[in-house]
Amino acid sequence: MTANRAIGWGMEALPRIVRGEGSYLYDAAGRRYLDGSGGPAAFSIGHGNREVNAAIAAQLEQVACGYRYLFSSEPLEQLTSLLLARCGPQFGHIVYSGSGSEAVESAMKLALPYWNARGLPAKRHFVARERSYHGNTLGALSASGFLERRRPFEGSLLDVSFVSAANAYRPLGGLAGAELTAALADELDARIAALGSQRVAAFIFEPVVGAAGGVVPAPPGYAQAVRAVCDRHEVLVISDEVMCGAGRCGTWRALEHEGVVPDIMAVGKGLAAG
Fold it and tell me: Can you give the residue range of the structural domain that contains 83?
């Protein structure tokens, strides 16, 4: 993007940040800003953490990157061991990517060769929820029920089917509690049946909705109910924990609260500050 085009986007009116420390950012004029959202909900321990910066610098002195198809490395193996220990014994493999959007994209892509390997190549369709946001890449955006962000790319997105948001504050049919959970599960069941379970690869959802709603947890029992629906139809469950995972809900995995294990899980943001 050229400088002139950048100005057309209104960037000339934005403060120019020159330094970050803890929860605060400082601009070129010396003004201080409270970074209340932690960037795009990415920073969990603030800006300019000296321990983290020293570890990054020490690693850069050794090597910045080892191509994963050709090399392994001690930091990679240490991180893999740490994550697998935190996630639990049901998880056995990790694919690393550069962002939360790419993590979701990879999760969706993994679902397709899985069904191919099972001899069910027709299972290519995804089901997601309204008022959800899964990322900037075209696949992740396709699964996002966020009309404002989807609109400029309509026509180039994947064909994804949507079911209602799991929102107790603005509930489906005005229902509450167990009735709301049952209605949401029944809707998912009906949608998969209408599409044909032989065509549906996965259901993707955020245990706690972030960018599309603030902080919106599903009603109690929801994760268990949709897990049961997907098991009945042989549909994979993809848990998008990019924003709500990595300890942000009090447990390492957000779905631990309901004792639910997804087939594929995406994490990011708080894992490495974006």
Answer: 72-271
